[in-house]
């Protein structure tokens, strides 16, 4: 653990850069720096000088430098990012579980902004935005050509102000405007319910600062209502990730003391760490360990973990740890595959650099980068199957993604599968919208949850006939 003493702040893993960002890690400055490439820096200075003296109109020097830094960082991978004063403030707000905005996780796709997931209960969720929606305009500005940071800035604002988003919904073959009123988003990252006597459902939608406390409170309530719990479903579907220490704590709640939860490995010494199921590896602040309040029975209650393509990063850590230690059965579809750690290094009082510094590994030493967690049992989204799973974006689909531990050759059948899925999607788009809306998680119509309950009861599970393991694809430059 000596290497961890070099870390001055938080270690976190996040899924996607977006309107809500839930990752943060700060490290102390190192005493040595890599040699600077003087010739290339001279060229950079020469270009700067030419733009200042010869460009058709005056340019702002500060903006030139900021844009150069942003371009340099964004060329690395999808998760490295430069934070200016405003975005750094918003970034820190996101880790606390509250911020002002519309409440969506986003990424880029073909120059547009793609909705990964609306935050439950947010203005975007109430306005009916859905995963997969493409944002083509923000107020009067076309999204094409905007960076992800610029798009986020335009959607953020003061509470009570409005923003007009133009949405392209491919599965309905239509484009439409949505006016959303910004508000302070207080994300509720943990939900629970008794689905039937003896069986509980616990959903984590993000891993934030207060997630562990909320998680413990929900479990205490479950055991108060059902002291002899027969089975628990931990639902991590569409959980984009968040703070690593929260993921370690959640895993620790179910695992034997002292076993490995996750390890990280990178170029610098402080990125080489092993995190175990013990308080010193998840307690960032002094005080009572909230996990001590949990009943001992939680360590052995039968469990199923539900995941899908939207389960990323910190949620993959939890699923991977419980799977490797054979503590739970993982069910659903293959996860997103974000197995990298980001470090946030302050550059001054109000700017910072978020840079990828390590990959993370499950207890058995498997890298999930660009592959994800493969469920023990593949289960479809609905009783009719998962005919559009092949179309869903994963880490391996993002431009400039890091490769995993092993490279697999590109599957020549994948494009044919996607073409067939697109044809099915076009046919589906002709149906009324109400028939295409998926059941709410945790509801009586939630097919994967019903299969998880069947597994816990020892009953037959309807295994998917459409989902197959998706190998990591070789990147092409």
TrEMBL record:
Keywords: Hydrolase, Protease, Serine protease
Annotated InterPro entries: ClpP/crotonase-like_dom_sf, CtpA/B_N, PDZ, PDZ_6, PDZ_sf, Peptidase_S41A, Tail-specific_protease
Start and end residues of each stretch annotated as Disordered: 401-446
GO CC, any one term: outer membrane-bounded periplasmic space
Keyword tRNA-binding recorded: no
A Pfam family per the record: PDZ_6
Stretches with biased composition (Basic and acidic residues): 401-431
Domain PDZ: residue ranges: 88-170
GO molecular function: endopeptidase activity; serine-type peptidase activity
GO biological process: proteolysis; signal transduction
The organism's place on the tree of life at top rank: Bacteria
Similarity comment text for this entry: Belongs to the peptidase S41A family.
Official protein name in the record: S41 family peptidase
């Amino acid at each position: 653990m000596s290497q961890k003493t070099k870390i001055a702040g938080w270690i976190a893993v996040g899924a996607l850069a977006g309107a809500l960002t839930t990752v943060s890690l700060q490290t102390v400055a190192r005493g040595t720096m890599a040699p600077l490439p003087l010739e290339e820096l001279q060229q950079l200075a020469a270009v700067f000088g030419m733009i200042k003296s010869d460009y058709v109109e005056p340019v702002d020097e500060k903006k030139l430098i900021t844009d150069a830094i942003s371009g340099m960082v964004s060329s690395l991978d999808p998760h490295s990012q430069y934070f200016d004063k405003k975005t750094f403030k918003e970034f820190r707000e996101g880790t606390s579980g509250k911020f002002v905005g519309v409440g969506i996780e986003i990424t880029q796709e073909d120059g547009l902004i793609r909705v990964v997931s609306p935050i439950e209960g947010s203005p975007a969720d109430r306005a009916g935005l859905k995963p997969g929606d493409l944002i083509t305009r923000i107020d009067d500005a076309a999204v094409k050509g905007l960076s992800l940071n610029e798009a986020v800035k335009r959607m953020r604002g003061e509470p009570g102000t409005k923003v007009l988003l133009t949405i392209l919904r491919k599965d309905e073959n239509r484009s439409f405007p949505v006016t959303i009123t910004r508000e302070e988003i207080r994300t509720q990252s943990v939900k629970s319910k008794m689905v039937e006597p003896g069986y509980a459902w616990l959903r984590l939608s993000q891993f934030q600062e207060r997630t562990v406390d909320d998680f413990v409170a929900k479990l205490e309530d479950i055991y108060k209502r059902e002291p002899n719990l027969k089975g628990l479903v931990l639902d991590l579907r569409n959980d984009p990730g968040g703070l690593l220490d929260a993921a370690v704590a959640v895993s620790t709640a179910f695992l034997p003391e002292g076993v490995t939860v996750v390890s990280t490995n990178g170029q610098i010494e402080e990125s080489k760490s092993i995190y175990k199921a013990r308080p010193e590896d998840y307690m960032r602040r002094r005080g009572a360990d909230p996990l001590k309040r949990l009943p001992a029975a939680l360590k052995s209650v039968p469990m199923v973990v539900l995941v899908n393509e939207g389960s990323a990063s910190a949620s993959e850590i939890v699923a991977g740890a419980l799977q490797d230690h054979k503590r739970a059965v993982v069910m659903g579809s293959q996860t997103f595959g974000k197995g990298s750690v980001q470090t946030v290094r302050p550059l001054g009082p109000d700017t910072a650099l978020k840079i990828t510094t390590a990959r993370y590994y499950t207890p058995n030493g498997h890298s999930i980068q660009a592959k994800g967690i493969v469920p023990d049992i593949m289960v479809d989204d609905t009783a009719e199957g998962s005919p559009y799973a092949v179309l869903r974006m994963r880490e391996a689909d993002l431009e400039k993604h890091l490769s995993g531990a092993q490279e697999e050759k590109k599957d020549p059948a994948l494009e044919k599968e996607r073409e067939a899925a697109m044809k099915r999607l076009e046919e589906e788009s002709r149906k009324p919208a109400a028939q295409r809306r998926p059941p709410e998680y945790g509801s009586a119509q939630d097919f994967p949850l019903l299969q998880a309950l069947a597994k816990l009861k020892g009953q037959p599970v309807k295994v998917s006939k459409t989902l197959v393991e998706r190998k990591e694809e070789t990147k092409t430059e």
